[in-house]
Write a structure and sequence with these properties.
single chain; 494 residues; alpha+beta; BirA Bifunctional Protein, domain 2; Rossmann fold; eight-stranded mixed sheet; five-stranded mixed sheet; 17 helices; 18 strands; histidine-tRNA ligase activity; HisRS_anticodon
């Protein structure tokens, strides 16, 4: 009787998630370190919160949907409490502040970097797991705290290599928007759905223009308005008078769009922010923009977005514009959910993946990230000696490894070093070992020389970029090679 063939498990990744290799991780790590330095320069300190929170701690503020807890990954633990993967980094901060309120300095200034999770339909560039990097000030009622976050975001983008003029920090105020909604009769819980439709129409002004916003505020808009074809987006159903009030709020030259306390308070706060950023020398980098909405419903005051304005070409020559890479605002009600009193708070969140993608376009011509120096194995019975050479390099702060595959084929060891993008390999056969020497093959220079040599005989004769040195010179010669090519290396250990 034939034995059943063992079942082979199919390797597959859940939709909306991604593996990330060194080509993405290394520049992202450098980017996060730059952001951290700027945040700490402004006096923010590190905080880490768990990936998982009690679902009710996240509550109705998740996400931009009408129903609470929509879009989160949730499960029950062994005592039947509902838990959820965090949807953002702000709700966990609010829980942390409320839980430790009496111990924390106020204002409490913290930054956090970490993964967040959204149980939403994935699509191109839309993942269920992505990283954010937040900075928040809790306990500061003045809009100077909001202005400071906008200035810090501008400094962060420039520290990352984005030129002044290639980005803008746009600022609006939810009180202004609330005042406009009140003026057109959309206050109260019964109008929550229509309010959201109006806000989404305003948010699309940079994509569809004022005429498109007008359509979305009215009966709706066709994807191809002139031909009235394509998808149709149902509008908010406002009458002409209501539409004119909303459109007036988007026109800085139109004057007062609404006459109520919320609108006036929001305008006054925007004037303060303008005064602060102008006095600090950020006038051309931070501007008031009445089209900024921000999606989450917990915002209570100033809201802001960091937008990249430069355009690049993708691999097919098509224009790519990245738009918003971060945003935030004031959320004076979020911490108060746990305390029964309002606690002022404001914060900014960077979308790490989107910003990293933008930076990769800016730095396409940057030098590649080099791998470790590879010590090849010529004689298997001398493995311990090769390991000693590796140890010597590591103690000197030089990234190094010994080849751990099958050492029979020397060519495969060189191919391995090439795939690791190693700057050089260290070679020592029995003759070199007997004379206390090693050979160092410069793979960077060797690649340049190989490109210029077409004749095999010439290649064999020249042995480009390979030289001998004493074992006691190994560290000095490798450092010299790395410095020559601008390859970074660390200080000696111990």
């Amino acid at each position: 009787m034939a034995k059943d063939k063992p079942t082979k498990l199919r390797a597959r990744m859940p939709r909306g998630f991604a593996d990330r290799g060194p080509g993405e991780l290394v520049p992202t790590r450098a980017m996060l370190e730059t952001i951290r330095r700027v945040y700490e320069l402004y006096g923010f300190e590190a905080l880490e919160t768990p990936f998982i929170e009690y679902t009710d701690a996240l509550g109705k503020f998740l996400p931009d949907q009408d129903r609470p807890n929509e879009g989160v990954f949730s499960f029950q633990d062994d005592d039947e409490q509902w838990l959820s993967l965090r949807y953002d980094l702000t709700a966990p901060l609010a829980r942390h502040v409320a839980e430790n309120f009496d111990k924390l300095p106020k204002p409490f200034r913290s930054y956090r970097a970490g993964w967040v999770f959204r149980n939403e339909k994935p699509g191109p560039g839309r993942f269920r797991q992505f990283m954010q990097f937040d900075a928040d000030t809790v306990g500061a009622p003045t809009v100077a705290a909001d202005a400071e976050l906008c200035m810090m975001m501008a400094d962060t983008l420039e520290a990352l290599g984005i030129a002044r003029g290639d980005y803008v920090i746009k600022v609006n105020n939810r009180k202004v928007l609330d005042g406009v909604l009140e003026a057109i009769g959309l206050g109260g819980d019964e109008n929550a759905g229509r309010r959201l439709t109006v806000l989404r129409a305003i948010d699309k002004s940079d994509k569809v223009g004022i005429s498109g916003v007008r359509d979305l505020l009215g009966e709706g808009r066709w994807e191809n308005p002139e031909a009235k074809s394509g998808d149709f987006t149902k509008g908010a159903g406002l009458d002409e008078g209501q539409i004119e009030i909303v459109l007036a709020s988007l026109d800085p030259a139109a004057g007062q769009a609404a006459e109520n306390d919320a609108y006036r308070a929001g305008k006054a706060e925007l004037d303060e922010i303008r005064e602060f950023v102008n006095a600090a020398g950020y006038a051309n980098r931070i501007r008031i923009d009445p089209s900024v909405v921000r999606g989450l419903e917990y915002y209570t005051g100033p809201v802001f977005e960091a937008e990249l304005t430069f355009e690049v070409k993708d691999e097919k020559g098509r224009p790519v514009r990245f738009g918003s890479v971060g945003g935030g605002g004031r959320y004076d009600g979020l911490v108060g959910r746990f305390r029964g009193e309002a606690v002022p708070a404001t914060g900014f969140s960077i979308g790490v993946s989107r910003l990293a993608s933008a930076l990769s376009y800016l730095k396409q011509d940057a030098a590649p990230e080099f791998g470790p120096v590879v010590v090849v194995v010529m004689d298997r019975d001398q493995t311990a000696h090769y390991m000693g050479l590796v140890g010597t390099l590591r103690q000197a702060g030089i990234r190094a490894e010994m080849y751990l595959g099958n050492p029979k084929n020397l060519g495969n060891q060189f191919k391995y070093a090439d795939r690791r993008n190693s700057p050089c390999v260290v070679i020592q056969g029995s003759d070199e070992r007997a004379s206390g020497q090693v050979q160092i093959k410069d793979l960077i220079e060797g690649a340049k020389a190989a490109a210029a040599i077409t004749d095999n005989a010439e290649w064999r004769e020249s042995r480009p970029a390979q030289f001998a040195c004493g074992e006691d010179e190994l560290v000095a010669k490798v450092r010299e090679l790395l410095d020559h090519h601008g390859v970074p290396h660390g200080a000696a250990l111990g």
